[in-house]
Design goal:
The complex is a heterodimer of chains A (273) and B (310).
Chain A (H helix, E strand, L loop, with lengths): L3 H29 L3 H6 L11 H9 L2 H32 L5 H11 L4 H14 L6 H25 L3 H9 L4 H12 L1 H17 L2 H6 L8 H11 L4 H34 L2
Helix pairs in contact in A: 1-13, 3-13, 4-7, 4-10, 5-7, 7-10, 8-9, 10-13, 12-13
Chain B lengths: L1 H8 L15 H31 L2 E3 L4 E3 L3 H7 L2 H13 L2 H17 L5 H8 L1 H4 L2 H11 L8 H5 L11 H28 L4 H9 L4 H12 L1 H17 L2 H7 L11 H11 L3 H25 L10
Antiparallel strand pairs in B: 1-2
Helix pairs in contact in B: 3-16, 5-6, 5-10, 5-13, 8-10, 8-14, 10-13, 13-16, 15-16
Classes of the chains: A mainly alpha (273), B mainly alpha (310).
């Protein structure tokens, strides 16, 4: 790999892969700005003139903006609850002498990648039974629960990287466990916790199955079910579809763009396994 | 993995279990801190799992359930659609080695710091940030007759092709979408494992005349085998349990049942047809299969060095 030729080839290969990851975004953006007739004539290349009819159709035909709002209403509390619960549990598992902690951790490992439907079947029935169908609270709580095992697993290996001697020194100085968690662990592990929080946000925002099953009335839908149904309704009007995809992807793309430095470093330092 | 490094540095005398101040208030917090996670996991995961297992032995329509023993399971085993669907999941497993190879190649190249490697690392993770719903709609748009995928065909005068109307090409589209979304995550996992490899190893090997290929096979792969195993395990699980979104938007399971996966079929039987007991039995079988495959991979994967952080 030292010769100039092979380095150039490698570079070109990476460029091709890089283009493949960016091109769909460009495709979405450009075609959301075309009229459907312009798309039929010329789907590739720059649009001749910007036409925002697709966005108008999207907002007038489907409750699209409210579906984005619903996603935020569900995702933000779930991310906070899941990340905080995971951080607390991971702290107990790694830094405190609680004996049965390991048992709980093994339970979490066992169910970490549980097929969602195993959990969702009885929960769906129970939620309907309690008259809470199409209510955001069950969705928030279920998303929280489902994301806790993986979050705890990640933060556990993250917290293990913090030397026990740091904690021990504070214990000797008489600090309480709660103080150690807030004053020592949280500040040191902030990049790891942020990484897990971002991953959890991506997981929940992008998830389809639970949101589809729990919030299935159009007035309460989250963004992924709305997009999935949009693809059936507007399969012939690609610009409207692309406008929806673009807006639906925006929150996660912006989050990734803004936090990329911390997020990528967090993942590289072992926060993802 | 970073964890291991620190642990070796950490003072071995000070285990966290020693030195316990006597005041009770100081000992309560760890138990309180476990409550949220424990409540969520017990109430919204373990209990539902138990309920699903129980109901898999019943005829359940969501309201009433009657115990029918192994009926659901024998119905499943004798249902020709179900066996077709399990075969589909096995076919989709082709994506796992593809994802591993793509992740490894990209990670190794980025590791060698070709010009612009930071940008590449940033770009390659983008598909991971997008919802499978969005990726699915994009891919189904690209593979419409006359879509982007047909442009090379058109250039040589072959016209358009209905990719999603034939079983094997429809499966190919799902697999491509899956590989495209997954390789960035694999790259990051592998890169994070590679940062723990001592660069001196590569220098020494180069001085001894080891080729690039030889270094990859003799140094890199053995030293990151733990991460490769992890990736293999989670991607197999993902293939069996999480293709729902892709299938839902790209093919709706078709043509026929050619791209229907177990989780999608379970969704159809329960939430569209209201056969909750049957769906529960399907879900339980899916869970058992995933469990067995995970254990098998942990046992069978060639692991030359134990270096996992967790």
């Amino acid at each position: 790999m030292t010769s100039r030729l092979s380095r150039t080839l490698v570079f070109l290969g990476l460029c091709v892969v890089g283009v493949s990851t960016v091109y769909p975004l460009i495709f979405m953006a450009l075609n959301s700005m075309r009229s459907s007739t312009a798309f039929e004539l010329r789907p590739y290349g720059l649009p001749n003139h910007v036409n925002l009819d697709s966005f108008r159709t999207l907002f007038s035909q489907v409750p699209f903006l409210s579906s984005i709002l619903h996603s935020f209403i569900v995702v933000i509390p779930a991310v906070i609850l899941a990340t905080l619960s995971s951080a607390l549990a991971a702290f107990v598992f790694t830094k405190t002498p609680v004996r049965f902690g390991n048992g709980l951790f093994w339970v979490m490992l066992m169910i970490m990648f549980m097929p969602g439907i195993v959990v969702l079947l009885p929960l769906y029935v129970e939620v309907a039974h309690l008259g809470l169908a199409n209510n955001f609270t069950p969705a928030i709580l279920i998303y929280t629960a489902i994301n806790i095992p993986y979050g705890t697993y990640l933060l556990r290996s993250n917290f293990r990287a913090i030397p026990d001697s740091v904690v021990e020194a504070s214990r000797v100085d008489g600090a309480t466990w709660s103080r150690i968690f807030v004053r020592i662990i949280l500040p040191i592990a902030r990049p790891g916790i942020a990484t897990v929080g971002i991953l959890t946000f991506l997981n929940i925002w992008n998830e389809l199955f639970i949101s589809l099953v729990l919030l299935h009335v159009p007035s309460d839908e989250m963004v992924t079910p709305t997009l999935a149904q949009l693809s059936g309704k507007y399969s012939t009007d690609i610009p409207v579809l692309m406008a929806g995809l673009l807006l639906g992807a925006m929150p996660t793309l912006v989050l990734y763009l803004v936090t990329a430095r911390v997020f990528i470093r967090g993942m590289l330092s072992g926060a993802i396994r | 993995m970073a964890a291991d490094m620190y642990e070796e540095i950490a003072d071995p005398v000070s285990g966290a279990t020693e030195a316990r101040p006597p005041r009770r208030s100081r000992r309560v917090f760890p138990y309180l801190a476990l409550i949220p996670a424990a409540l969520f996991v017990l109430g919204l995961m373990l209990l539902p799992i138990g309920a699903t297992i129980f109901h898999s032995f019943t005829n359940w329509d969501g309201l009433t359930s009657t115990f029918i023993g192994w009926r659901n399971f024998s119905l499943i085993i004798h249902n020709p659609i179900v066996s077709e669907i399990f075969v589909n999941s096995v076919i989709f497993l082709i994506s796992v080695p593809l994802i591993l190879i793509a992740s490894l190649v990209v990670a190794v190249l980025v590791y060698e710091k070709v010009p612009g490697w930071r940008l590449f690392r940033f770009l390659f993770f983008i598909p991971n940030v997008l919802s499978p719903v969005i990726v699915g709609v994009l891919f189904s748009t690209f593979f419409l007759p006359g879509g982007l995928a047909d442009q090379p065909l058109r250039a040589v005068g072959l016209g358009s092709f209905a990719w999603l109307s034939y079983p094997w090409t429809a499966r190919l589209v799902v697999i491509l979408a899956l590989v495209w979304t997954s390789f960035g995550f694999g790259m990051v996992v592998i890169l994070s494992a590679m940062t723990t490899i001592d660069p001196a190893l590569y220098d020494a090997a180069t001085i001894d005349g080891a080729s690039w290929w030889c270094r990859l096979r003799r140094i890199t792969i053995p030293l990151i085998s733990g991460s490769l195993q992890f990736l293999s395990v989670i991607n197999v699980i993902y293939t069996f349990t999480s293709l729902f979104s892709f299938v839902f938007v790209i093919t709706a399971g078709g043509p026929g049942f050619a791209t229907t996966t177990v989780d999608y079929y379970t969704y159809l039987t329960t939430f569209e047809n209201g056969q909750f007991g049957y769906g529960a039995a399907l879900a339980v079988m899916l869970f058992l299969i995933v469990f067995v495959l995970t254990i098998a991979q942990i046992k069978l994967f060639p692991q030359r060095e134990v270096q996992q952080g967790a």
